[in-house]
Amino acid sequence: MQERMPEWFKVKYNEEAVKEVSELMSKLKLNTVCKEANCPNLGECFQKHTATFMILGSQCTRNCRFCNVVHGTPEPVDENEPMHVAEAVRDLKLRHVVITQVTRDDLPDGGADQFAKVVSAIRSLCPEVTI
Predict the structure, then answer these.
(1) Can you tell me the distance from the alpha carbon of 118 to that of 107, in angstroms, rounded to the nearest whole number?
(2) pLDDT by position in tens, the chain (length 131)
């Protein structure tokens, strides 16, 4: 007979929390690696108002076999993205923020400038948040 998984090991999907965070991300035109990489813990993390922001779009210029992020031609850099990430951090009342990005081989700096702008925007709007 197969042993059952303990309760603490089971992933809980909270549809209401996923909807709330997804609507905010959609409104601000933001991406999360949680959603783009089809993370199975998305419901549990969104319930805790936790998300890993993925900047510079949802299309990666590489096609790694281990990754679920879509490969393709990326959209232009969104100049409003830094402030939108900061607004999401504020609205979700986050204390710590994780930021990642798709690979942008099309950009001379690989996206470093946008990354710096996102960090600066978060620090200006939510100075108590760690990144």
Answers:
(1) 16
(2) 677 878 776 666 678 878 888 898 899 999 998 888 888 788 888 888 778 999 999 998 898 888 888 889 999 999 999 999 999 999 998 999 999 999 999 999 999 999 999 999 999 999 999 99
What is the residue whose two structure tokens read 């504020």? Answer: 90
Query: Considering the entire predicted model, what is its pTM?
Result: 0.84
Q: CA nearest 102: which of 17, 49, 33? A: 33
The tokens describing 3, both together, are 């042993």
Q: Find, among 94, 10, 88, the residue nearest to 50 by Cα.
A: 94
Q: Is 82 exposed, middle or buried (0-12, 13-18, 19+ CB in 10 A)?
A: buried
Cα dihedral across residues 108, 35, 47, 90: positive or negative: positive
Task: Decide: residue 76, CB within 10 A, 0-12 exposed, 13-18 middle, 19+ buried.
Answer: exposed
Q: Are 33 and 54 in contact (CB under 8 A)?
A: yes
> And the tokens for 78?
């969104």
Determine the residue type at 13: Y
